[in-house]
């Protein structure tokens, strides 16, 4: 059976998913790697560990299907930065989106640059990271020949090519999303030459003739085409079928995001959301939250004991015993600061409204609801810019939780469609590969997404969530000064 592979390198793992040409999953493998915290507020990963995990995931996935594999589409998490020499050796770890070291540098960036790049000014941005490296004259910054993302690092090592797709370039804060080239003002701000960055190219760009040793380790033919595809955000929208006006993709894994495609850049005078290039005539607009599944993991660790690790299933069952609204307990899920819509690395997580009758089941449900409120808050900004939400499409690890999906439907008051596979970024990447290799069209993916279910909103719960969200959306401004003083 002819098959296509979607490779999705995320924050905590490399996932390889093998599909038939109709989107049915044939096999998959996921290999984790750690986030390193060498200093408080820093978040890094070892590029060698990522490469090893990626190769292992591919090898396990294609083991029985390599003869039928026609190509690989490549999805990667955004905002990583590696200092690299011309031999493809990393001089630094990958500084990832969650890194906060440039919190003081990002406000120093000229706000007008956003109008060219569509990237809000925040420590997640490689532009801010580069300013920090330059300010402190970090040795590897001085010695680096190139500054690249995890994807560019791997492509260079595997093929020797110095290229980057539009959506990965756009996530740097250094790319002009109107002209599809590196932005001169942003380069000047970063004290960088465009010769230190790779050439931006179409997501349909296909590479063959992989380094022989790497192909053997993966268990694939070295001439199997690898298509650049894009970053995980737009590919998740594509892979779930949220490509038309009114179709909104919501992805929650470790972090989370809400996004819509648009036919032009949608730039926000308040700079509350991003607008990134995808193809030469399409853009992805939305906002990310730092705090998705990582919130539930924190609650799990908090409530577990030395003798009993509270499972996610047990937590869900406890949360189900509490009615929508958690008996008026609110949770601000800013454990790792927050990106959209505030872009404030100093924001803090907070329970609001705690009373003696609140028990661990309330804490669990309020935490889950807080993550959804955060997504809903960004959704309001998109509506202010003219986007509307008719149908929600869910992807990421949270799509395995029927309770969390119901909360999403109830909060927005809109139906939620859920595909059979929660690996939508991988399927989106695989589909772009099919477009490049076999002349498929992007919009035709809607006929090739096996759907599992559609969840209808409970309108009584929707009313409860509307009343509580009205309180929630004002809390950040009320507590902002307190958060900054605590920092």
UniProtKB/TrEMBL annotation:
Regions annotated as coiled coil: none
Carbohydrate kinase FGGY N-terminal domain location: 4-239
Keyword Transferase carried by entry: yes
Superkingdom of origin: Bacteria
Transmembrane feature ranges: none
InterPro entries (alphabetical): ATPase_NBD, Carb_kinase_FGGY, Carb_kinase_FGGY_CS, FGGY_C, FGGY_Carb_Kinase, FGGY_N
Domain Carbohydrate kinase FGGY C-terminal: 249-436
GO molecular function, one term: gluconokinase activity
EC number, UniProt record: 2.7.1.12
Keywords in alphabetical order: Kinase, Transferase
Similarity section: Belongs to the FGGY kinase family.
PANTHER family for the chain: GLUCONOKINASE, SUGAR KINASE
Protein name: Gluconokinase
Naturally occurring in which organism (per UniProt): Piscibacillus salipiscarius
Highest classification ranks of the organism: Bacteria, Bacillati, Bacillota, Bacilli, Bacillales
């Amino acid at each position: 059976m002819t098959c296509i592979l979607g490779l999705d390198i995320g924050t905590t793992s490399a996932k390889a998913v093998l599909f038939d040409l109709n989107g049915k999953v044939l096999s998959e493998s996921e290999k984790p790697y750690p986030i390193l915290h060498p200093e408080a507020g820093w978040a890094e990963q070892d590029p060698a560990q990522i490469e090893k995990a990626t190769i292992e995931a591919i090898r396990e996935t294609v083991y029985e299907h390599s003869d039928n594999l026609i190509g690989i589409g490549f999805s990667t998490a955004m905002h990583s930065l590696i200092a690299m020499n011309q031999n493809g050796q990393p001089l630094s770890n990958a500084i990832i989106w969650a890194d906060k070291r440039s919190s003081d540098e990002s406000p120093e960036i000229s706000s007008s640059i956003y109008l060219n790049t569509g990237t809000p000014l925040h420590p997640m941005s490689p532009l801010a990271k580069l300013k920090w490296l330059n300010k402190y004259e970090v040795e590897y910054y001085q010695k680096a020949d190139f500054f690249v993302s995890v994807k560019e690092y791997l492509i260079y090592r595997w093929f020797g090519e110095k290229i980057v797709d539009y959506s990965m370039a756009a996530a740097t804060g250094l790319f002009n999303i109107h002209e599809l080239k590196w932005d001169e003002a942003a380069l000047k701000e970063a004290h960088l030459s465009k010769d230190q960055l790779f050439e931006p190219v179409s997501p349909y760009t296909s590479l063959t003739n992989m380094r022989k040793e790497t192909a053997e380790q993966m268990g694939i033919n070295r001439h199997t085409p690898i298509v650049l595809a894009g970053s995980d955000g737009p590919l998740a929208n594509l892979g779930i079928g949220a490509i038309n006006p009114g179709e909104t993709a919501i992805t929650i894994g470790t972090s989370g995001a809400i996004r819509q495609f648009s036919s032009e850049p949608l730039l926000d005078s308040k700079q509350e959301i991003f607008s990134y290039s995808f193809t030469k005539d399409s853009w992805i607009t939305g906002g990310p939250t730092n705090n998705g599944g990582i919130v539930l993991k924190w609650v799990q660790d908090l409530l577990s004991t030395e003798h009993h690790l509270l499972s996610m299933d047990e937590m869900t069952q406890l949360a189900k015993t509490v009615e929508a609204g958690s008996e008026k307990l609110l949770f601000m899920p800013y454990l790792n600061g927050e990106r959209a819509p505030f872009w404030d690395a100093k924001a803090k997580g907070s329970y609001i409204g705690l009373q003696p009758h609140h028990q661990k089941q309330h804490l669990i449900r309020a935490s889950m609801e807080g993550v959804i409120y955060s997504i809903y808050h960004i959704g309001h900004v998109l509506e202010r810019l003219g986007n509307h939400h008719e149908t929600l499409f869910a992807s990421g690890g949270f799509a395995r939780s029927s309770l969390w999906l119901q909360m999403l439907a109830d909060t927005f008051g809109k139906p939620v469609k859920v595909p059979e596979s929660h690996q939508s970024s991988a399927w989106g990447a695989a589909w772009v590969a099919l477009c490049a290799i076999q002349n498929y069209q992007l919009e035709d993916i809607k006929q090739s997404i096996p759907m599992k279910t559609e969840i209808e909103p409970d309108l009584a719960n929707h009313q409860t969530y509307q009343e509580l969200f009205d309180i929630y959306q004002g809390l950040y401004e009320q507590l902002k000064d307190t958060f900054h003083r605590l920092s």
